[in-house]
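Thread title: Can someone regenerate the structure for this chain?

I was given the following input by a collaborator and told the matching structure tokens would be attached. They weren't. Posting the sequence so someone can regenerate them.
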Amino acid sequence: MRKFFRLPATATAPFCPSETGGSIEVPKKASLWKKLAIFVGPGLLVSVGYMDPGNWATDIEAGSKFGYSLLSIVLFSSLAAMFLQCITLKVGIVTKRDLAQLCRDHFPKKLNTILWLLAEVAIIACDVAEVLGAALAFKLLLGVSLKLGIILTAFDTILVLGLQGNGFRRIEAIVLGLILTICGCFIGELIFVQPHWPSVMAGFIPRVQTLAHHDAWYLAIGILGATVMPHNLFLHSSIIQTRKIGPSVSEKKSAIRLNTFDTVVSLSLAFLVNCAILILAGAAFHHTGNNTVAGIDEAYHLLDPLVGGTIAGLLFGIALLAAGQSSTFTGTIAGQVVMEGFMNWKIPCWQRRVITRGLALIPAYIGVMIFGDNSTGRLLVLSQVILSLQLPFTIFPLLLFARNKKLMGDFSLLPVTQIFAWLLLIVIVVANGVLLVGLL
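Best answer:
Regenerated them for you:
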């Protein structure tokens, strides 16, 4: 593992992608496996966004209320995420600009300001989920109140500051370790809880009657927002540029293929983790007749059949903290990418972390003050719905650039791919519209 993620001697990339300048060399005559080892990493950073506490909350509530029936939404959302992330990485590699920079290059200033503000709202909503998840983890691990746990999350800036200048390869290796921690927890649980697998497989078949239920539709939108995360599209188009790619068509094609492999494998892992969380919630709660358990703050009981209540809280808290911290790293980078790309404002990453976390702490603390310590699950799901509502404002510019032959040349989207992409955007817009009408 250490050898695989060893930082090349020439790569001293700092934490923020804007400062790297493609500092990780890709030797032209390297073997396929060596090139793959160099390109593996950005997909992992993107994938942690699909395993953050917001995903946990939507999957747990979906499983506890509706059993395995919303697994089809997890599958659809994951495939949509892979599709869009692959388009994003292609745009970044070919244009050598991230999505936010392209918006600044081609859109009017007022429109850019609006898009930037919407992207910032999405990043803050995502960070609210990290705050709530980490606060709950501190509550389970340290026995503190949720309010004090929220205050403790302010100190994660120290982690970001400590990683400044350590390079993307080291960040990627740390994130991989956190992902493996999460996976180990849930793989063990699947073995011991023993869900009814034929029923699980049936859950991947869409059922209109389930989605007709308003709560199911609300959760489906939350799952979509938690999976196809708007800030990840900005993030991915930037961090792939930490690899130095030659200008030739063949080198770009090779980079696109290897990055696509990295992305699909990494997001497949995230898909399996999300499925595992929903399946465990369905098996432990819904299919035992306890379909009223919906909050992530109650979900540590998922581990009760294996190790009992006390250690269950400890293990669940460790996995939840790992999910929150790994997402914190990528959220910091995404915030930097969005601010520099849209507005051309450059500040140190740790200052960006302070701003984002400060803005996230306020609504998280107020929400807990108003709704109480048991409101974590509801607030987390709400944050993911906000992400879904912001999605069209990110996907639309992405598709405009991806189909632009002047920008992309021979790499522009094929007509068939364009049809699927625009249909996906229409589905997301309609789904959000139906949700908003239902809430009014």
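The CA atoms of residues 100 and 341 lie 4 Å apart.
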